[in-house]
Structures are given as C-alpha cells and as structure tokens.
Amino acid sequence: MAQSPRHLVGPHALSTSSDIKPLRSSNDYFPDRPASHAYHVYTNILASQFLSGFTIADFDMFQTHQFIGSSTAPKQGPFHASVRALGNGPITVTDVPGQSDASVYKRVCGRARDGKTVALNGDAPVQVSDDRCFDEVAQGEDGRGLRGYSKSEWGVIMGLWNVRDNGGWVRDTLSFEDVVAAGFGAAKRIACWSHSRWDVMVLPAEPQDIVLKELEFDVFTMVEMGKGIACLGLIDKFNTLAAIHSCEGNIWNFKCLGEALWAMEDMLLRSKLRGK
C-alpha cells in the first residue's frame, strides 16, 4: 500500500522527489462496525498532524451509502465525507455498484457554469486545536468530541465529530472560546453557520450545547462580520468557503453553483446560484 518500501524510498518516492505526494494516513474501517468508523476518522486526523509536514495525508476510500447488510445501519457517508472536505487530500470512494448516495457527492463537489465538476475541500491540512490534540476524545462513555479546523482567506471551517468508542455520545459546547482557538483573535462578532442544524448564529453568545450520537457530526462555518456583513459561502456544501473564488467590493464570485448565504445585522440573505 502507501507505506511500501517502493513508495517510501524508491526512485520516485517521497525521499527522493521534490514534489509533495499523497501518503495513506490510516488503516481500513469495517462498514458494519460503527466503532471502527470513529477510530478511522480519529487516526486520520491525528496522524495527518505529523504526515502533513512532508506529504499530503490521504484519508483513504469510504462508502457514501450505509452498510448494505442492514437496513437499520447508521448512515456513514456524510460522516466520512465531512472530514475529507476539511482536509487537502484526495477524496475517493468505494461504493457498491448501484448503491451510491448522490447527496453525499454533492456536498463535497459542485458543478461549474461550464458543466465541469469542482472539488470543494481545503487548501491546507485539517488542523486540531491544542486542547483536543491529546484529549481523550476517542475513549468510551460520554465526553467531548474531536475538533478540526480548515482555514482560508474567507474564514474558518470547524468540524466536530463523535469519535468516541463503544457508542459513547458527545456532550460538548460551542462558544466564543472556539473562535479564539480558530485564530480570529480579538474579532468582535463572528457569523457561525451550523450544517447539521441548518441555522446561523452570531458569536459571542451564550455557549451552545451540542449533543452528537454515534457517527454524528457537525460542521461550523465561522466568518468575521467586518462591516456588518459576512459571506458564509455555499451552505449546501460541507466546506462552504471552498466554493468562494473571489470578492471585489460587494460582488462575490463562486467556483460552482449552489445555495449562498450572507449574514447581516438582524438579517439573513440567501440566494441560489443556478445554471442555464
């Protein structure tokens, strides 16, 4: 696999090439074992903190559909797709033919006006906050979740995943302290979009309680409200800010079609970008 001697020390390997290449950063998970999904995500994010210093962490393939052998199995596709959308590695799937969940694909890519498909993930490796890097977020029973950040010139995407063992729940909070940890510093007001709640809030505010069951997660888009307005990107994508191409004054250009959201004082402006 990616860690074979040929890949590491061969004539076109990491040790001899000037090009940064992808390197697999985790082992497999088992579709019928939810705990293995959680550990897969946990090891990928933590291992990428080291590997990203000299390679591109490849989180490996995942399935967009639930486990085929059980109609009651939890949906796994969004859980895996969300963490890959925050990283800068390749996004690859290994679906059973005829079982792909198109809604998962649509949240990690978009269709440009020329009809081409655009991948929407991070430009840099996903980062883990200092207070969670060595926290026991993968232990059993209830507790805090694993947080990862994807930063860009437009703002910060923060993911929160339940990677706890043995079906433990995440009981966590979202507060202005998370804004500081994300690197906003002394920012006054931050517009924050919750993907799972499909709602927006303005921080600072009272800490918001977050409860995540097995294989549940949330992705928060955080943007500073500079002049009383903030563009939160395309909210029908996991990495909403990756869809922004440029901004000139009050004119925002996007890489693909989707549902855009702007937050203003006491007002939300939502617009759907459609092709011809």
So what's the overall shape?
globular
Q: State mean pLDDT (0 to 100 scale).
A: 85
How many discrete domains?
2
SS-derived structural category: alpha+beta
User: What's the CATH class of the largest domain, please?
Assistant: Mainly Beta
Q: Order the strands across the largest sheet as they lie in space.
A: 5-6-7-12-9-10
Helical content band: 10-25%
User: Major sheet, described briefly?
Assistant: 6 strands, antiparallel
* Cα radius of gyration in angstroms: 19 Å
The arrangement of helices and strands along the chain is HEHEHHEEEHEEEHEEEEEEEEE
Strand content: 25-35%
Q: Assign the CATH topology of the largest domain.
A: Immunoglobulin-like
Q: From the coordinates shown, what is the CATH architecture of the largest domain?
A: Sandwich
Oligomer classification: single chain
Cα separation of the termini: 44 Å
CATH superfamily of the largest domain: Golgi alpha-mannosidase II
Low-confidence stretches: none
The total count of helices amounts to 6
Tell me the number of strands. 17
